[in-house]
Write a structure and sequence with these properties.
Layout: H1 10-22, H2 27-41, E1 46-52, E2 57-64, E3 75-77, H3 81-89, E4 93-95, E5 117-125, E6 128-137, H4 145-163, E7 183-186, E8 188-191, E9 194-201, H5 216-239, H6 241-245, H7 247-260, H8 263-274, H9 279-294, H10 300-321, E10 335-339, H11 344-348, E11 355-360, H12 368-376, E12 380-382, H13 387-390, E13 396-400, E14 405-408, H14 412-435, E15 449-454, H15 461-466, E16 471-475, H16 477-481, H17 489-503, E17 508-511, H18 539-545, H19 547-560, E18 565-570, H20 576-595, E19 603-610, H21 619-625, E20 628-631, H22 633-641, H23 659-675, E21 679-681, H24 689-697, E22 702-705, H25 707-719, H26 722-734, H27 741-751
Parallel strand pairs: 9-10, 10-11, 11-12, 15-16, 15-22, 16-17, 17-18, 18-19, 19-20, 20-21
Antiparallel strand pairs: 1-2, 1-6, 2-3, 4-5, 5-6, 7-14, 8-12, 9-13, 13-14
Helix pairs in contact: 1-2, 1-4, 5-7, 5-8, 5-10, 8-9, 9-10, 14-25, 17-19, 18-19, 19-20, 21-23, 24-25, 24-26, 24-27, 26-27
Bound molecules: phosphoenolpyruvate and magnesium ion.
Length: 756
């Protein structure tokens, strides 16, 4: 068969569908007529409409071209075949040879084996997949963008019919889509903890019911007016003092301002209106196209930007429909925020005390919003596919950050089990709070010090709440990671000043930029892709390679620390010459500032992070060179044991308490003592009570850990007779065998009923 060229645009098809909607027809008749109309107008041999049922199957509801007896008989599960794949991914599939697609499933009753080309689009409403619309041709051809657009536009109309209940007479009893049944969505836990509460849809999609426009010019005017007030409202937000104050939030808003002026976006919106849609329907349409194009992109930066765009589109929609952000309704006191993806700054918009958890369809352990949620101490489950379309605002939900699951509308027994778990945790929290001001002394009178790790403004309140003795690791790169462009020198200085203000005299150790490796800055130019970025041009290596970065940062730090002590440490030091080079750059900055009569820090302490095993064999020189050493156990363990710290397959295999690693740490502590150089540790190892106990047993007296871990670690240390534990652990390490230190310590704790 010769290749057909097709010229029907969405406008003609939409006009015909609109006429059909006005005719007096039964539900099946109308759906059949729509399928016929699509097939005719798009010059396709087949058009089929599948509708989602309560049992998760997609049932063939109407077809033009396939065997009629297959209607209401053929079905596919979500994820099965091409149709199921479209429903699962909520993305269109445009294939010139459908049968060679790995997901193709053959349904003999339909007679579709003779059709090669295939275009299917999801039938979506307010983010929920309600079905799939498909067209097929015998000839191998690829459908044009116009045709994809036409089918997607009609799919919006079908979604309205389903949502309005006009097809309910066609559903077999018992198979109506029940949106209220209990369901567990499994994903990945990105932050521990259990959250019990009610669903707050972060992005309560404004449902567009008015699709067809009477007058394209008028719709374009409406769009322009809405865009103008959207831009103004963003400018307003940027001008507000509290935003001005809040660095992370500001960076995101600046990105929004850029998008709101994006010509390509505006052009696509206008085009959709010219094709016959209302301005609001055009916004919805362009947004789902954008999503389809962008969600499968591997680049995490672009995916982050997609959520920014989503937020912007929603704001524009509200301008058009006239409902304010209060459309979300009053925020419950136990809000579990459910979102497909969201920007970091948006999470900061919610009052922290009302947020009990966060569930994302997307997200990764390192996405900005997850970093912020962790800083807020909110449990997070990510990769929870389908959660947005399955939940309704106000639904009860339980989020389990340990297991990585969200239980929507849970059964009473599930709820009771979790309520018990939450009560237990709350009691623990009460105990930790009561210890906040208790002396940091072990049961045998040994003093210890617990500092906290941080890196964002949202971390700062926890300094007070956790009772931390200061900030032992301030990860300055986080400010860079949540921004869309390099933070300016003033923004850096401002953040550091805020950190000092919040610390109120407690010591703070700033780490210079630790970027590169897995902490990529999307806006930073990289000339060559690295095969092993964890061992690549990262951390201090990178900032010495691009000294402008280090100079700017050091100047900001020196200025912010005027009149106070400045403690700075360098990440991933491998050779002492790196410390010397950094010191020279810092000295120049000090000179520069004093020439300009800036107040300087009262003292400067320069430290190195011990993360590369080579330094273990140069400890004496290291201790003589620096003012302090902080062991980065996350990286040191990764490099000593040759285990990628981000590789989940290895996570359970190797133990931080392995004797070889503990012996290495002990040698660092001993060298520090011999030279009078303070040694601390700031990796995750210190955030778990038993490994933390091992660290104190081998001689450390100060560690820096997650703020939420300070309570549990302090509770344990206060109950421990440290001399006893040190004796047990050191003797075991000295025996030269492979002692099971974890076992020794858990037995010790169990025998004395200690709080672990
Ligand atoms: C570490 O490696 O232990 C550390 C504290 O640094 P980061 O986790 O930021 O790499
Ligand atoms: Mg590190």
């Amino acid at each position: 068969m010769p290749e057909r060229t097709n010229t029907v645009g969405p406008r003609v098809l939409l006009k015909r569908i609109r006429d059909l909607m006005a005719e007096q027809l039964g539900a099946q008749e109308r759906l059949d007529a729509i399928a016929r109309e699509i097939a005719v107008r798009m010059v396709c041999e087949v058009c089929s409409i599948y509708v989602l049922r309560a049992d998760g199957n997609l049932e063939l509801y109407a077809t033009e071209g396939l065997k009629k007896e297959a209607v209401h008989r053929s079905q596919l599960r979500i994820g099965e075949g091409l149709v199921g794949t479209i429903a699962a991914s909520a993305r269109a599939l445009n294939l010139s040879d459908a049968q060679s697609h790995p997901a193709f499933a053959y349904l003999p009753e339909t007679g579709e084996e003779i059709y090669h080309s295939f275009l299917g689009v999801p039938i979506l409403r307010a983010g929920r997949t309600l079905g799939v619309a498909v067209v097929q041709n015998q000839a191998k051809r690829s459908y044009s963008d116009d045709e994809v657009e036409a089918l997607e536009t009609v799919a919006m109309v079908i979604a309205e019919m389903i949502a309005a209940g006009s097809l309910s007479g066609l559903v077999r009893p018992g198979l109506e889509l029940d949106l209220k049944k209990p369901i567990t969505v499994r994903g990945t836990g990105y932050n521990e903890g259990v959250g019990l509460g009610h669903v707050v849809l972060h992005d309560p999609r404004v449902v567009v019911t008015n699709l067809f426009s009477e007058d394209a010019n008028r719709e374009i005017e409406r769009l322009e007016a809405a865009l103008a007030s959207l831009r103004l409202s963003i400018d307003d937000m940027l001008a507000r003092r509290d935003v001005d104050f809040d660095g992370e939030h500001r960076a995101v808003l600046e990105a929004y301002r850029m998008f709101a002026h994006d010509r390509g976006w505006v052009r696509r919106l206008e085009e959709a209106i010219r094709n016959g849609l209302t301005a609001e329907a055009a916004v919805e349409k362009v947004q789902s196209d954008m999503r389809a194009r962008m969600t499968h992109m591997a680049d995490p930066y672009l995916r982050e930007r997609l959520s920014d765009f989503d937020d912007l589109a929603n704001r524009l929609m509200r301008q058009l429909i006239g409902s304010g952000p209060e459309g979300r309704g009053a925020l419950p006191r136990d809000a579990i925020i459910v979102a497909r993806a969201m920007g970091a700054a948006e999470l900061l918009d919610y009052p922290r005390e009302q947020v009990r958890g966060l569930v994302l369809e997307e997200g990764s352990a390192t996405s900005h919003v997850v970093i912020v949620a962790r800083a807020m101490g909110v449990p997070v489950v990510g990769q929870a596919r389908g959660i947005v379309s399955m939940s309704e605002a106000g639904d009860p939900v339980i989020l389990d950050g340990e297991e990585g699951a969200a239980h929507l509308r849970p059964q009473p027994d599930v709820e009771a089990a979790y309520a018990e778990k939450v009560r237990f945790r709350a009691n623990r929290q009460k105990l930790y709070r009561s210890l906040r001001n208790a002396p940091n002394l072990t049961a045998d009178g040994e003093p210890f010090s617990l500092l906290m790790n941080g890196g964002l403004l949202v971390d700062l309140p926890q300094l007070e709440e956790s009772g931390a003795g200061g900030i032992g690791l301030f990860r300055t790169e986080l400010q860079f990671m949540v921004a869309s462009a390099f933070p300016r020198a003033e923004a850096q200085e401002q953040l550091y000043r805020q950190v000092y203000a919040a610390a109120a005299g407690k010591p703070v150790t700033f780490r210079t930029l630790d970027i590169g490796g897995d902490k990529a800055l999307p806006y930073m130019r990289v000339d060559t892709a690295e095969e092993n970025p964890a061992m690549g041009l990262r951390a201090v290596r990178l900032t010495l390679e691009r000294p402008g970065l280090l100079r700017t940062q050091m100047r900001a730090l020196l200025k912010a620390a005027g009149g106070r002590e400045l403690r700075v440490m360098l990440p991933m030091v491998t050779e002492l010459s790196e410390v010397a080079e950094a010191r020279a750059i810092i000295a120049k900055e000090i000179q520069h500032l004093s020439r300009h009569a800036h107040p300087l820090p009262t003292s400067l302490k320069l430290g190195a992070m011990l993360e590369v095993p080579a330094l273990l064999h140069n400890l004496d020189a290291l201790m003589r060179t620096v003012d302090f050493v902080s062991i980065g156990s996350n990286d040191l363990f990764q490099f000593m044991m040759a285990v990628d710290r981000g590789n989940a397959m290895l996570a359970k295999r190797y133990d931080m308490l392995t004797p070889a690693f503990l012996r290495a740490l002990r040698s660092v502590v001993r060298a520090g003592k011999a030279h009078g150089t303070p040694v601390t540790l700031c990796g995750e190892m210190a955030s778990r009570p038993i490994p933390a106990l091992a660290l104190f047993a081998i001689g450390l007296r100060t560690v820096s850990l997650a703020a939420s871990a300070i309570g549990p670690v302090k509770a344990l240390l206060r109950e421990v007779r440290l001399a006893e534990v040190s004796e047990i652990v050191n003797a075991a390490l000295d025996r030269g065998e492979q002692p099971d230190i974890r076992r020794l310590l858990t037995d010790y704790a169990a025998a004395r009923a200690l709080t672990v």
